[in-house]
Amino acid sequence: KEKIFERAFGIDFVVGPSDIDKIPEIIKKISGKSLYEVKIWETDGSLRPENIYHTGFHADEKHSYVVISEGCSNFCSYCVVPYVRGALHNRRHNDILKEIEEAVDKGITSFTLLGQNVNAYHSEVDFIGLLKTVGKVKGLKEFSFLTSHPRNTSIELFKAMAGEEKLKKILHLPVQSGSDRILKLMNRGYNSRFYLDLVQNYRKIVQGGILTTDVIVGFPSETEKDFSETYGLLKGIRFNSAFIFKYSPRMGTAADKLPDDVVKAEKERRHKLILDLQKGISKAIRHPRE
Ligand code: SF4
C-alpha cells in the first residue's frame, strides 16, 4: 500500500472495488488540503453496499448490465480475480429484481446479467431460478448472461435457456485449453471430454444457440501436443467466435510459480494459428454459401 503512493507520486487515494461508495466522502476529506498532503487507502470493505447498484445511470438508453455476483472462488491457477475481487458473493434475489424493475421503469428493456462466474449464482434461488424470475419481469424484452464456467453448466441450464422465451440463445463458455494436462494445471475443474459433452447437449437442447469461448495459448509447459489438442478442439467444435489470449503471469497466482517457459515467439505463433483458424470458422458460419 505504501508502494503505490511512492511509485505514483500524484495519487491522493486508493479505493478497492468494494469501497467505491466511499469516494464522495474521501473527496470531501481531502478537498482544501494541500496537494499530496493526504494519502488515503480504503480497501477494507468486503461487499459493496446494495445502493451502489441503484445509481440510475445507464450508459445505453435501452440496455443495462446488472451485476448479480462479485468475485470468484474458483482459483483458476492463472487468474488474479479471486485475489483482487475476493470470494464469490451473490446479491440477493429481490435486490436484483428491484434493480431490473427500476431500469424497466426508465425505459430500459434489454439486460445482461453479469458475474465473473455468473452461473455459480446462488442466493434465495439458484441461477436457473433467477433466470426464470427475471424472464417474468414486466416490460423486459430480452436478456442474456456472462460469463459461465463449464463446471457450473448443466443440461438443466440448457433446458431453462431453451424454455425462456426472452433469454437470448447465447452461451459464452470459456474452454481455455483442449489439453487435459493443461486444464489440470490451470485448475479448471473439468476435462475436454466433459466440455465436449456440454457442447453436444447445448446444441441439441438450445437449437440454433450461439456458442463462444476464451482460449489461452502458451500456458507454462504447453507443448506442441497440448497446443494441437486445443487447435483440434476448436476445429471440431466450430465456435461462433473466440477470444484468444497469450498467457502472461499474474503476480501472486499459482501459475506465477511455474516457469513461463513458452517463449514469446512461440506464443505468438500459436496465437496466430488459432486466430486464423477461428477467423475462418466464424466467417464460414456467418456466410455459409461463400
Ligand atoms: Fe474465476 Fe474465471 Fe478467474 Fe477462473 S478465470 S478464477 S472462473 S474469474
Task: Write a brief caption for the model.
This protein is α/β, with parallel strands linked by helices and 290 residues long.
Biggest pleated-sheet summary: 3 strands, parallel
Averaged pLDDT:
93
The tally of helices reads 10
Rounded Rg: 22 Å
- Total DSSP E strands: 10
Catalogue the ligands: iron/sulfur cluster
Question: Which segments are poorly predicted (pLDDT under 50) over 5 or more consecutive residues?
Answer: none
Q: Shape, please?
A: globular
Fraction of residues in β-strands:
5-15%
Structural class: alpha/beta
Strand adjacency order, main sheet: 3-6-7
Fraction in helix: 25-40%
Detailed description of the structure:
With 290 residues, the chain is of the alpha/beta class. The protein has helices at 2-7, 23-30, 81-84, 93-105, 127-134, 155-163, 180-185, 192-205, 224-237, 264-286; strands spanning 13-15, 40-42, 63-67, 69-70, 89-90, 110-114, 142-146, 170-172, 210-217, 241-246. Helix 5 (127-134) packs parallel to helix 6, helix 6 runs parallel beside helix 8 and helix 9 packs parallel to helix 10 (264-286). It is globular and about 65 Å long. The model has no long low-confidence stretch (mean pLDDT 93). Bound molecules: iron/sulfur cluster (SF4). Iron/sulfur cluster (SF4) binds at residues 72, 74-76, 79, 81-82, 116-117, 149.
Essential attributes:
36% helix; alpha/beta; 3-stranded parallel β-sheet; 290 residues; globular; binds iron/sulfur cluster
Question: Layout of helices and strands, plus pairs?
Answer:
Blueprint (H helix, E strand, L loop, with lengths): L1 H6 L5 E3 L7 H8 L9 E3 L20 E5 L1 E2 L10 H4 L4 E2 L2 H13 L4 E5 L12 H8 L7 E5 L8 H9 L6 E3 L7 H6 L6 H14 L4 E8 L6 H14 L3 E6 L17 H23 L4
Parallel strand pairs: 1-2, 3-6, 6-7, 8-9, 9-10
Antiparallel strand pairs: 4-5
